[in-house]
Please model this.
Amino acid sequence: MTATVSLPLLPVYLVDALGSSLMIVLAVAALIHVRRLQRLEPANFLWTFFFWLTLTLTALAFSRSFWHLLRYLFILGGHREIWQTIRPYSGGINTIAFCTAAVAIFYYQNTERVVASGRREAEALRLAHAELARANSALGQLNQTLEERVARRTEELQLSEAKFRRLFEASKDMILFCDGEGRVCDINDSGLELLGAAHRNEVIGQPFTSFFLSQEKGRHFRSEILSQGHVKEFECQLKGPADSQRYLMLTAVAMRNEAGEVQGCQVIAIDLSHFKKMTDQLVQSEKMTSVGQLAAGVAHEINTPLGIILGYTQLLAEDFADNPEVHETLAIIEKHTKICRRIVADLLKFSHPSAEQQMRPGDINRCLEEVLSIVEHTLNMDHIFIHRCLAADIPLVLFDPERLRQVFVNLLTNAHHAIGEEGIVGVWSRHHPERGEVEIIIGDTGKGIPPETMSRIFDPFFTTKGVGKGTGLGLSVSFGIINDHNGRIEAYSPPQDQELLAVDMHTAFHVHLPLATGEEEA
Amino acid sequence: MPTEQNGPRCRPAPARSTLLLLAVALPWLLPAPAWAVQVHGGAEGYIVHQMAHIFLGAALLFLLLVLHRRPPGTGKPWRHLKLSLLLFLLWDIDTTLVHWLANRLPEHALLTTVGPSLVGDRILLPDSWVWYLYYAGSHDHLLCVPAIWFLVLSLKGLGASAASGGQQTSTAP
Model:
């Protein structure tokens, strides 16, 4: 017989009871932690596996510990037979718990696949995200660089545009742009003023050549642009405000596209009207000087024979005093010889006016009133009335009253002849302190001066009046007298002044005289 | 409303549920002796329980190997988990062995006192190392309690890592 040992079961019972109790507590703790884990990352399939693993292990621990503790309760309660009855159920349930836990554990293989698949997808997604982030960063940098460059270029463009816009707008010369059809696209304010347009819309869209006074000249300008690609120092006349004319010098450059086709042109026009006027005046002055010198020579040469003719005629008239027929003939010769002498005297006055002048400061309005009082009656006889607009605050002007009266009489007489009967003669006096001069305007509602004769009206012996009505020296002499007063005389037909046009003046003579200075007065 | 153009209406086929009802009812209508029910007695409960232990042990071993070869994460929680599984495996082996030995205890081995007290319970075992091993193995809670304790630690650590946005275990897509 084999030897036996007797071992106490109490340690086994104690460890079993205590361990079972701890198992229940720890199983609950494990369940709580795995639930927390699952709640934190519900999409993590690995935690789902752990949940089921923990759940089955907890069930196993519960089952086993529960039955063990129940066993002690039954035994200690004196119901050992009851425990013997339910003991197989305890073992069976424990067996099921073991199997369930094992099945749950074996499921890890699938879990691993799912997790690996998820990780691969996550990695692919992360790589794609990183790639996207890199691309986004690169795009951002590119965009930022592009934005900075665009901003810098825009600023440069704005500065450049502002600079050229200022140049364009502030230029006192006309600057305009035309499209390929030759229509005005843009024009600066000076251009609008030059063309007499109140608003830009009056010019924009109009063919530039339509502003040319001569359409032939316009076509020539256009063809030059198209053929040569540029036009330089092209002199022309454009229509100015109120049907006036503007003398311009154009410089234009065609704008071409890459194919070389003309897309438009840019034109810079310099207003030469004033320069042209001054040039004309200079030419006229030179002409007058030449004519005056010629006339003076001729007059001097003619004056002596005329004196001899007149003297001998008068002697003959005394000799033939008793012969009326001869005496009458000699009287006619004497009369016309005197006319010739007067003409010669006028010519001499025209050529050498300063010889007899007596310049002193005076009131120009008073001088005008004196002349008007003389001629007004004659004018009224022909139903011509005088429209006076004399400025009250005109300062003293240095002039020769006698000779200036002659100028005014000449101008008023010309106005009378231009009107004929029934009309208005307008007389204005104005003070221009900014120019240091006074302006006297004598206008009429007559038939006006044709443009072709305008350049010749101050020439000696030029007249449009009938035979016997004028010698053609009135305006020439007036020109000489005013010139001798350091002034100038200008004729406009039609007038350019709106005030004159308002009272239907067709012709106007503007006499400009400088103001008297204190030194001259002294 | 049907028209002649729709053609004559077909008679409906016998319902599938009717056929199923007939199939279920037929065995009741034709009764015969049944030999399919097997009686389970004797050692079957013990064998099934031992098989369950082996099944669980195999599962635990499998999981341990997989976690060792292809660890899903690193760090203390995972080490705790593997330790927990190892202890569960040892406990499973221990209990399987104890069950096996318990089934081979001599008739006189277990002495119990009569009555509710357990203090005086003693066991008479053959004087052999195997039965000493059996006696020691009966303290199986010394293995399973630490096992579940490390499981709790592991889950707690994983939870803390997940709460702080940990990197080692995250598999969320």
Remarks:
- The helical segments of chain B are 16-29, 44-69, 76-102, 129-137, 141-163.
